[in-house]
Structures are given as C-alpha cells and as structure tokens.
Amino acid sequence: MKSKHTQGEWRVGDNYREVTTSRPGIFIGSKTVAKISQFSKSEDTIIANAKLIAAAPELLKACQEAMRIVYVWSPSYSKENIKESDISELAALSLMRRSIEQSLKKATK
Fold this sequence. Notes:
Elements: E1 11-12, E2 18-20, E3 32-35, H1 43-54, H2 56-72, H3 87-108
Antiparallel strand pairs: 1-2, 2-3
C-alpha cells in the first residue's frame, strides 16, 4: 500500500520553525511538511517537536517492520499447549502488537 504522506526525507529547517523535504541549501522543489508553533513554548520544546515530526517517516517504517517481526514471533497457541514459561513473553508480544497496531492506525488512517 502506497503511503499518503509527503514522500522523501524530512528534515528540520535551519530555524527549527518548519519541517521540509529539502536538503540543506537546496530549496527548489522542496515542500514544507509542517510549521512548528512557537507560542508559549520554550526553545527546547520547539526544537524537540521539530525533530520528532522530522523523524515521523522513519518511525512509521520502523513500526511497520516491527509488526512483521511481531507476526512471525506470535505463533498460534491453544490453551492446551501454552507453557507457564511462555506466558510473560506472549503477554509482552500481545502488548507490543496492540501498541504498534494502534500507532500505525493513527498514522495511516
């Protein structure tokens, strides 16, 4: 499935007030992905928000790849063949799967 978000590498603008698809010093053909609000926020918060937004495409890809691993490591168990030693691992996989699914749904729907 093709992603609907702006393609390409995202980067934080020089002033941390926007996230763009441009490379440093190259502005022709670049797209502004997001503008960062600066009202009633500290400079550290503005910078952190810009960096988090710029990392979104890589974080989305990492979640999608993690989901593939979770599916591989989540075998079908019946109540009869679950060992007590498997319970904590299955619970952790279940929580991870649910968290990743919710994040992917939020990011792509």
